Amino acid sequence: MGGIEALEGKVQDTAKKGGFEPITVKKQIIKSATEAASMILKIDDVIAASKMKAPPMPPGGAPGGMYPGAGEY
């Protein structure tokens, strides 16, 4: 099992040095990486959607406005 030795800054076999990395740490690393990737993809979707052209509005605005049936007397 490899790891970074903090004092020397080199990759070493942590088992030989008497160190170990609990499975909970590995699970958290994978979870955090997944969340970061998901957030980047969501931001990318927002940017892509903002670059798309909106469909042209009909003259006088949208039919019915915000309240369908409004103005019908």
> What fraction strand?
5-15%
Spans where pLDDT lies below 50 across 5 or more residues: none
Shape: rod-shaped
Per DSSP, the total helix count is: 1
Q: Provide the structure class.
A: alpha+beta
According to DSSP, the number of beta strands is 2
* Mean model confidence by pLDDT: 78
User: Order of strands across the widest beta sheet?
Assistant: 1-2
- Ends apart, CA distance between termini: 78 Å
What value does the Rg take, in angstroms? 27 Å
Characterize the main sheet. 2 strands, antiparallel
Order of helices and strands: EEH
Helix percentage range: 25-40%
Task: Explain this structure.
With 73 residues, the chain is of the alpha+beta class. Helix content is 40%, strand content 11%. The protein contains 1 helix and 2 strands. Strands 1-2 form a two-stranded antiparallel ribbon. The mean pLDDT is 78.
Key terms for this structure?
single chain, about 70 residues, alpha+beta, two-stranded antiparallel sheet, about 40% helix, rod-shaped
Can you give me a brief rundown of this structure?
The chain has 73 residues and is of the alpha+beta class. The chain has one helix at residues 23-51, and strands at residues 2-5, 10-13. It has 1 helix and 2 strands; from the N terminus they run E-E-H.
Note the topology.
Elements lengths: L1 E4 L4 E4 L9 H29 L22
Antiparallel strand pairs: 1-2
